[in-house]
Amino acid sequence: MPLLCVANLAFNQDMSEQELLGWSNKCLTQCFNADAADKLKKWELTLTPDAFVRLRKTYANGKQEYFSMHLRRLEDLDYWGTVAAGNMVLRAKGDDVIVQTYNDRSGNVDSMATVFSIPVKNMEPERLDSLRNALLYFKKKNL
C-alpha cells in the first residue's frame, strides 16, 4: 500500500483491536520526525498491545534516550506546530512518563515527567484526530 494511502487511513470504529494497533503503529512510524533530533542513529516508536507508548532514540555517539508511558495515565494529547512539522505532546495525569538515559557523558538518568513530546512531520488534522481516538480507545480498554 503506498505511503500516502496508509497515511490517510482514518480510525475506524469497525476495526479489530489488532488492526487498530497495527494502524496506530504505522501512523506513529510514518509521522515520527527523526530529523528533529541531532545525529540520531536509530529510533523505535511503538504502541504496545498492553497500551504503553514507547520511544527509544539512539544517537551516533552511543547515547540512548528512552521514554515510556502507559495510556491509562494519559490526560490528553496536544499538538504544537504545523502540518509539515511539530510536536505531539502526550500529557500525563502526574509524573507518569518514564525517562531514562544511557551512555550519557553526564551519567545515566532515571526520572519521571508529566509530558511525553514526540517530534512529528506530515501530521494532517484528520490523521492526528484518528491517532488521538486510537490512543483513547487503548486508554479506555486498559483502565
From TrEMBL:
Name used for this protein in its record: Uncharacterized protein
Lineage: Bacteria, Pseudomonadati, Bacteroidota, Sphingobacteriia, Sphingobacteriales
Domain of life assignment: Bacteria
